[in-house]
Design a protein that fits this description.
It is built from 6 helices and 9 strands; from the N terminus they run βαβαββααβββαβαβ. It is α/β, with parallel strands linked by helices and 245 residues long. Strand 6 and strand 7 form a beta hairpin.
Length: 245
């Protein structure tokens, strides 16, 4: 695990954009394509907008990038809460990404059917290759959840690399999410976290004793690759570290 800590959110976003570009280009050079699982939320939106800007838009051959989603809300793809819609507006449309390169969760199906179909699509994409994304982007909730792996939910018990429908009893809603084993099979995992409101969750994930039911993000650590955290000083404030990059 690697921690990268910066003074401001803007510096965090720029650093992870550079990391995204480097990781993409390394994958394209090595294997001719780059597979990435995107995260939803407001923080990743700023990253996607930066990647689509003139600063980075020409830094990657986007025709060789294939987009997936680490999780999705059980809402239509036209709903403002849709992770797909956010990525579409912030990244896909500005960069003219071909529809064939975008793998969205089919939320017109039931949650269980959507999860099963998405798992099948992922398996078909990798075909005979190892089912390992080049990069999985993740955020961190105030309750220490990541993707849609929420505290005290059934998905935390999944031991296979798959996609799940996960019910959140407190909110009475469904989410579709990659399992922790599927995320951990990735070659690279990157957490994007900033703001003082995340400081307690960051501390729980990185420094508390293991308690998966309470802090699901503790499940995540790349098995054979690299897990990198991009934090601002506010989010890292509760960590017991001395060095600030």
């Amino acid at each position: 695990m690697t921690l990268n800590i910066f003074q401001t959110p803007d510096e965090v976003i720029d650093a992870i954009a550079q990391y995204f570009v480097e990781t993409a280009n390394n994958a394209i050079t090595a294997r001719g394509k780059f597979s990435v699982a995107l995260s939803g939320g407001s923080s990743p939106k700023k990253l996607y907008e930066l990647l689509a800007s003139t600063t980075y838009a020409d830094s990657i051959d986007w025709t060789k990038v294939y987009f997936f989603f680490g999780d999705e809300r059980n809402v239509p793809q036209t709903d403002p809460e849709s992770n797909y819609l956010m990525a579409k507006n912030a990244l896909f449309i500005p960069l003219y990404i071909d529809a064939a390169n975008i793998f969205a969760v089919d939320t017109s199906l039931t949650p269980n059917e959507a999860a099963q179909k998405y798992a099948e699509q992922i398996a078909e994409f990798f075909d005979e290759d190892e089912m390992s994304f080049d990069l999985v982007l993740l955020g961190l909730g105030d309750d220490a959840h990541t993707a849609s792996l929420f505290p005290h939910t059934e998905a935390l018990n999944e031991v296979t690399s798959t996609v799940l429908a996960n019910f959140l009893p407190e909110k009475q809603i469904w989410r579709i999410t990659m399992s922790a084993p599927m995320i951990n099979d990735a070659k690279n995992i990157a957490f994007l976290v900033y703001g003082e409101g995340k400081a307690e969750a960051v501390h729980h994930c990185l420094e508390d004793e293991e308690n998966i039911e309470m802090y699901p993000s503790q499940l995540i650590d790349s098995i054979t690759g690299e897990t990198v955290w991009f934090l601002d000083e506010a989010a890292a404030a509760n960590l017991d570290i001395d060095t600030i990059e």
